[in-house]
Amino acid sequence: MEVDPVDLAVKLIACPSVTPADAGALSVLSDALMALDFEVHDLTFSAPGTDPVRNIYAHRGIAGPHIMYAGHTDVVPPGDKAQWSTDPFTPVVQNGILIGRGANDMKASIAAFVAAVSRLDREWPGTISLLITGDEEGVAVNGTAKVLPWMAESGFRPDMCIVGEPSSAKALGDMIKIGRRGSLSGTVSVNGAQGHVAYPHLADNPIPRLIRLAVALDALELDKGNDWFQPSNLEITSIDVGNPATNVIPARGSFKFNIRFNDTYHSSDLIEKIRQALDAASDNREFDLNIHVSGEAFLTRPGKLSTLVSEAVHHVTGRTPELSTTGGTSDARFIRHYCPVVECGLVGLTMHKIDEQVPVADVLALSEIYQRIMERAA
Ligand SMILES: [Zn+2]
Questions:
Q1: Is 279 an annotated catalytic residue?
Q2: CATH superfamily of 5-180+297-377
Q3: Given 136, 137, 296, 343, which residue is catalytic?
Q4: Computed over its alpha carbons, how large is the radius of gyration of the chain?
Q5: What are 132-165's pLDDT values in tens digits?
Q6: Active-site residue (options: 22, 74, 362, 368)
Q7: What's this model's pTM, rounded to 2 decimal places?
């Protein structure tokens, strides 16, 4: 039974699965996969202080190669529904364009993969699996990060993974992602002593020190980039004193920054570098540094997997994809600890936007790309 990718995409989009809600999306997908003889494991994970989230791991075959497709059925909220040209969860196809929340990030991609599997020759020798989470757009605690160790314990070991996130920039297949930069956010706070501006000798203004520290971080040249990554970049994102008065020296101030860093660094090296720069600029005065690392940089070195995917993209679209490490983070950051991973999906121009959409032709072509990848892998 061949699956129509647009049909399946429409059914998935019709489930309003805004993180952490599943709204039936994974049941729609499970049914489609079970009809294709997949064994589906329904995995709900929870943790204190977070919402429980449903995930599935579906599996067919026993021999190698084992190709895994990874993705998510959760979506971001639709925003102001009145601005949409259709109800965001009542998808429509207009003039060859599928419109609805999750159309390109990334329900149509999942549907394209399932359709590709349905067309695959049943004599195809390998193993296919799908890791689909409902927790990618949120805190990403109860999703892929927990399914992967469960898989390892259960003896499910993929040889390679395709993440179906919208990796294309302007045209389908013009870009695939072979890695991602890491991301780190920090807050620097300094204490002073509050007082009247007319009596500064009785106060201690934290603002000049705060600015010196911010300037010191902003002046850091982290690296020059390398063959596969742009230079690491630090941005000061906010300076906060919260002082509504013009005649008061405030007691405390802070600034925030974010660093997108390449594989020159592990976050711990970078934190050390930041601390040294702040120490040097602080004139031995105290400051607080708070850092949150949301992901390390990683790279799947161009090789077998990127060649396999590039060839399939070229075969279907005529384009040779750029091997890129740009953009935000994705669940590939968890998967890369288990097997080589490449992201290959739709054009992401409208993801998270009003009237999120995808050309039906792209969905069909992506499905052919996925089919070709599987065929050529075995
Ligand atoms: Zn996504």
A1: no
A2: Zn peptidases (3.40.630.10)
A3: 136
A4: 24
A5: 999 888 878 899 999 999 999 999 999 999 999 9
A6: 74
A7: 0.87
